[in-house]
Amino acid sequence: MEGGLGQNSVPSSSSFDKSTVLDVKPLRCMLPIFPMSSQGPSSGQYPSGFAPFFPFGGPQESHAWTDPDQDTPPSGVTLNVPMPTPLRSFRSPIASTPPKHRALRGSSSRSSKRKTQQSQESLMDLSSVVGISPAQRADGNREVVNLVLMEFDALRRRISQLADAGEFVSGVTKRGDLKSGNVLMTAGIRTNMNKRVGAVPGVEIGDIFFFRMELCVVGLHAQSMGGIDSLTIKDGLEEEPLAVSIVSSYEYDDHADDDDVLIYSGQSGNFGKRDRVACDQKLQGGNLALERSSRRHNEVRVIRGMKDTANPSAKIYVYDGLYKIQDSWIEKGKHGSVVFKYKLVRMPRQRSAFSVWKSVEKWKTDSSSRTGLILSDLSSGAESVPVPLVNDVDHERLPGGFTYFHSLRYPKPVSLMQSSNGCNCTKPCVPGDLNCSCIRRNEGDLPYTGNGILVSRKSLVHECGPTCRCFPNCKNRVSQMGLKHAFEVFKTSDRGWGLRSWDPIRAGSFISEYAGEVIDKGNLHQNEELAMKDEHAFNTNQIYPPFKWNHTPQLLEEVSSNDSSEDYDIPSPLVISAKECGNVARFMNHSCSPNVFWQPVVYEENNQSFLHIAFFSLKHIPPMTELTYDYGVSHSDRAEGSGIPSGRKKCLCGSSKCRGSFG
DNA sequence: GCCTACTCACTTCC
DNA sequence: CGGAAGTGAGTAGG
C-alpha cells in the first residue's frame, strides 16, 4: 500500500464510506472499553435491502490485541532454532540403515539468511527442470496445473515414505503436505500466481484436493489456512478488497438445504476455537472483502471441504465453481457473539460438482435410488464391496457374458522357475529392515505409505505374499486386499461399458488388479497373436508411452537419490485375457490422457513368484469420473503411416494429446 | 526487506 | 472414536 495519501489517516480507513460509518457503533472484539451498546446491531436477520454492514474496524483497534510485554527477540537470535527431533519410538527397536537422505531443501531453516537465498536461487533453476516457465507461473492451464499437482503429491508421498522409515534428520518428519508445498513454492513450481476474480485457468469445477497447500500451488486459493482469499482493487484513489475465493468447512455449520446455496460465516471471533474466548467478529480482512464483493456482485470461487469417509480425520476439498453473494446479515453466535453470515448462490450453467457428492451420498444409503441400476452387484459377492451395474443411456442390459473373478488364473501349473518362500518377518514388515527379503528387493523401501498409497512407480514392486510369514496386516500387501472404492460399471455414451467410482480417489491409490486367465501357449508369438484378437486382453509387451509420476529427486537433497526408473521391467512378458473371466479392470477404457496407470507387482504364492498387474490412480479422481488407462501401442503396428492400422481402434478419448487410435 | 499477526490445518497422542 | 495439543505455512500489512 502506498504511504503517500493522508499521513494522519489510518490507511485502511481511506476507503470507508463515511456517510454510513458516522451513525453507527463499531463492531468490536474483546471490548473492555466500549461494550456493545443496545443500539448496536441486534441479532437476527436484517430485512433485505437494508445494508447490514458497518464499514469499521481499522488498525487503531489493533493495539488492543498486542501485548506490550511481548518483546521482539534481540537481533541475531531467532525463535525458530531447529530442535533435534527424537526418533519415533516405534522405530527404535529396528536396526535402521544409516540415513542416506539429507534434509529437505527449501527454506526450512531461517538461521542463515544467505544460505536460504542461495538455496532459493538454485531451487528456482529447478522450476525449469520440472518445466514451468515464468509465464506459466503467472497464468496456468490444465497441463501446468496437472504438472504442479503431480509434483506436489509425488514429493509429499516421498516425504511421507521417508518419515515412515525414520530417515529424516532434524525436525522435518511431520507435515509432508506443508513441506512439499513449501519446497514447491520456493522453487517456483506453482501456477496462477496472478490473483484473479473468477475462474482459474486449468482448474476445473469438480476438481478435488486433499490438502490446503494444493489449493495454494495451483492458485485456486492462496491462503494456506485462511478461509477467505481476496485481492485489492484500485477504484480511482480508493483501494478496496474483493473476495476471490472461500473455503467452506462442514464444521462451520455452513450448510443450506439447496446444494446451490451456501451460508458462510465470516472469519475470526474464535468461533469454535478451543481454549479461546468467543468474541465478536469485525468487519475487516476477509469479512470486509466479502462485504465489498456482495456490493459489487463479483464472482467468488467456492471450495467445499468435505469429510473423507475413507479417512474421517482428513478432509477433501471440492472446487464447486463460481458463486455470488446474494445476501449478508449478522447473527448472534452460540456464545452470544456477533457472527457475519453470507448467503452465496451458485451461478447457473456450471457443471455439477458438490451436488454429485450429495447424489452419491443418497445412492450409498439406498442403491436402488441410482437411476439406471441394472444389477446391484456385478461381482455376485466376489468383492467385499458390491459393484453396481448401471445404464442410464440406452437399453443394453448386460455386458457380454463373463465370469467375475478377482485375480489371475493360470491355465496349468507353472514350471518352477525360481523357488522362494517370502520373508520371515514375525510382524508387519518395516522399511529399512534389510533382514526382510521383500523390503530388500524393494531397495530397502516400503513401496507404500502407511495408508496404502503407492509412493513411486517402479520397474517392479515386490509385495509380501501368502507365503510370507509377516502379519496379514503388513503394509506391503496393498494389491491383495481387494477393492477399496465403491466402483460402478456403467454404459458410456460412445465407448461401450466403462468404469468409474462413487468415491473420490486420491493419487496413488490402488484401484484393482487386472484379473483374468493368463495366456500361455508356450510361444511368445502365439500369445501376442491371441492378445491382438482379444478385446479384453492385457499385454505387458505393448509399447507404453513413458510418463513421469515420481518426484523430482533434486527437490530433496538426497545423497543417494532413490531415483528408480519409471520404465517397466518385467521378468517375462505376460498376457492376460479377461474375455471369459475378469474383474472391474476389464471395463476400463483407453485414454491418451489417462487418470490410471498400471504397475507390475510380484509376490510369492505356493513358493513361486507370480507377476500381477495392479492399477493405481495417476492423480486425484473426483467421484463419477471415468477411469481410464493407456492401452499402449502394439509392436507390430507402430511406425505405420497415416490412418489407423489394422487391429487398432479409433480413439474417442477426446484428449488434446490424443494419438487418434489405440490397441 | 524483514517481521509479526492472522487464519474454516493436519497429525499424533491420549 | 473423539478431543486436545503441538507444529505449522502463505499472505497482508506494518
UniProtKB/TrEMBL annotation:
Residues 421-482 form the Pre-SET domain. One of its GO terms (biological process) is methylation. Residues 198-346 form the YDG domain. GO terms for cellular component: chromosome, centromeric region; nucleus. One of its GO terms (molecular function) is histone methyltransferase activity. Residues 647-663 form the Post-SET domain. It is found in: Chromosome, Centromere; Nucleus. Its main location: nucleus. Keywords: Centromere, Chromatin regulator, Chromosome, Methyltransferase, Nucleus, S-adenosyl-L-methionine, Transferase. SMART domains: PreSET, SET, SRA. Pfam families: Pre-SET, SAD_SRA, SET. InterPro entries: H3-K9-MeTrfase_plant (IPR025794), H3K9_HMTase_SUVAR3-9 (IPR051357), Post-SET_dom (IPR003616), Pre-SET_dom (IPR007728), PUA-like_sf (IPR015947), SET_dom (IPR001214), SET_dom_sf (IPR046341), SRA-YDG_sf (IPR036987). PROSITE patterns: POST_SET, PRE_SET, SAM_MT43_SUVAR39_2, SET, YDG. Residues 57-127 are annotated as: Disordered. Residues 485-632 form the SET domain. PANTHER family: HISTONE-LYSINE N-METHYLTRANSFERASE SETMAR, HISTONE-LYSINE N-METHYLTRANSFERASE, H3 LYSINE-9 SPECIFIC SUVH1. This is Histone-lysine N-methyltransferase.
